[in-house]
Write the structure tokens for this entry.
Amino acid sequence: MQDTDTAAQTTPTQAERECPVCHAPIPVYLGYVIWCDRCNWNVQPTPPEKPSSFFATFYERLGRKMSNDLFDEVMEQPRLKPTLTLSITLAYAIATVVHLITLLIAGIGIVLLIVGWRYIPVVIFALLFLGVAWVMRPRFTRMPPQILAYDDIPALYSILNRVAEALESPPTKGIVINSAFNASLSQHGLSQKRLLTIGLPLFCILTVEEKIALIAHELAHSVNGDPQRRFIIHTALDSLLNWAYIVRPSKIFTPMPGFLVGIIAGFAMVPINLALIGLSNLFAYGAYGLLHLLYRDSQRAEYLADHLASTVAGTSHLLSLLEKLYSANHLQMVTQRFVLGRQQGNLFVALQQAVNELPERERERLRRVNLFEQARLDTSHPPTVYRVAFLQAVPTTQPKIILSPQEEKQLDELLARLQPAIQERIVDTFIHTL
């Protein structure tokens, strides 16, 4: 039976409880999950669903093994660097074929249009090929309108530029501040302009040194050789997923207008729709397979991004940043208490307080949950506990970028100015989910 006693305080009770499985004494922290650190009883009060088939079980075990093997491998390497592996080479080959198919279809359309422009049937076929090529073309996401200009957040852009210079990374064209507990570096448009997105809930619980570490980690993704961020590969992935969506019919049997003729036409379309579903699945499995070729190299690149970020921000600050990533679920909890308790004031202060008061025992539970959930084959990130262990094993580095008291003050004032609008967005989103 699961036990998730909760209360308002965070100190352990006078009495200890006994683990119902191994009978070890368990310290009880009111307000947090009661669990056993010896046998892991109740470490995850709501465990994930178990694999439903033999293949799913095999896949899960394979993912754990590959993640563990990669961790052992990077721990043995004195220095990580971007490398061209067999899987990346195969991914490039598949991506090239994907783009060549689009170019081939477009080329056929152009040739037909040039050769047979005098003949209407040929022109129709040419336009059909060109239309298919247009639909199959790689899509490029546009820069979002929420980008903050330099004059809006000069303190943050100053840090961004200093970190980019230290990492020798390509320039970042803009910054977006949103309500997520996350941060990311994305690429947009044909020229692949880089955009840094920072979630204010995550940013607000970090010290200034950890903020620099977060920015350094994200910018390191532009120089760590992550295969999923390479232009040819990620555009091919987008194309395959778009193809799978476009060709897939909504229904296998769809009666056409007209009673008898419509029914006959509907049945006539069944084999065509089945063929289209098969083609859609082929494209989807192609994208799925391409991703799986890259997951191991993406996880390796994540370790390298951590190492590069530590050389700029300092190992200790990156380690403390990674520890705070375990607090992702606290945003929901704090928002719930804030809204349902009709509290007034600053949601971000409440979140920061909840994270700072987290007992070490609860942090350890979250570490173990993280290990159970993320040691998988189908994810681009290794478990955070592995990333922490990797950084602890490499030579400790000191920060290259240290902000002056005046710069820290400017950054704090900037974040305080952004908080009311983001807080309103978080609260509104939570209310709409009730």
About this structure: Residues 1-10 have pLDDT under 50 and may be disordered. The chain has one domain: 48-78+138-434.
